[in-house]
């Protein structure tokens, strides 16, 4: 099997595992809580499943090749390859996907998931975002 199909399969397995963990959190808690609560619980699920992750990852802002003195924070980075941006909103806006895509570009990361725990069912709150042009 070539490297690209193997990478895609690994990406698919990882995203499936993360979505499964998020669904367990949503099933247990339901909508209506703060984003920070969902982040804490999701990270507990990831840890219990042996999935490496980091919380509140600094995202440096680069302008014309210069790193600025300001940063953003990505909610969770999973296994150094999957960026997670969590929301707890009744509705999703295009700006949420744009925000995650910007993080992916700044981090030179290929794939991200926008997980909105504010939806009645999490299935309606999962958006996959791909950075088509990693460096």
What keywords describe this structure?
5-stranded mixed beta sheet; 30% strand; single chain; 135 residues; 3 helices; alpha+beta
- Specify Rg, calculated over alpha carbons: 15 Å
The largest sheet has its strands arranged as: 1-2-3-4-5
Q: Largest sheet, if any?
A: 5 strands, mixed
The helix-and-strand class reads alpha+beta
Counted by DSSP, the helix tally is 3
Termini separation (Å)? 24 Å
Helix-strand string: HHEEEHEE
Overall pLDDT, averaged?
A: 92
Low-confidence stretches: none
Find the count of extended strands (DSSP E, 2+ residues).
5
Describe the structure.
With 135 residues, the chain is α+β, with helices and mostly antiparallel strands. The protein has one domain. It contains 3 helices and 5 strands, in the order H-H-E-E-E-H-E-E. A 5-stranded mixed β-sheet has the order 1-2-3-4-5, with helices on both faces. Helix 1 crosses helix 2. The chain is globular, with a radius of gyration of 15 Å. It starts with a helix and ends in a 5-residue tail after the last strand. The model has no long low-confidence stretch (mean pLDDT 92).
What's the SSE blueprint?
Elements lengths: L2 H27 L5 H14 L4 E11 L2 E13 L3 E6 L6 H14 L3 E6 L9 E5 L5
Parallel strand pairs: 3-4
Antiparallel strand pairs: 1-2, 2-3, 4-5
Summarize the structure.
The protein has 135 residues and is of the alpha+beta class. It is 41% helix and 30% strand.
């Amino acid at each position: 099997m070539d490297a690209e199909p193997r990478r895609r399969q690994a990406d698919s397995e990882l995203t499936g595992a993360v979505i499964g963990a998020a669904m367990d959190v949503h099933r247990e808690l339901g909508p209506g809580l703060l984003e920070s609560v969902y982040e804490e619980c999701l990270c507990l699920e990831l840890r219990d499943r042996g999935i490496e992750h980091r919380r509140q990852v600094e995202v440096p802002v680069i302008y014309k090749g210069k790193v600025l003195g300001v940063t953003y924070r990505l909610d969770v980075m999973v296994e150094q390859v999957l960026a997670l941006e969590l929301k707890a909103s009744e509705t999703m806006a295009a700006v949420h996907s744009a925000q995650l895509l910007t993080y992916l570009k700044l981090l030179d990361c290929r794939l991200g998931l926008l997980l909105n725990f504010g939806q009645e069912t999490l299935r309606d709150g999962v958006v996959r975002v791909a950075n088509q042009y990693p460096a």
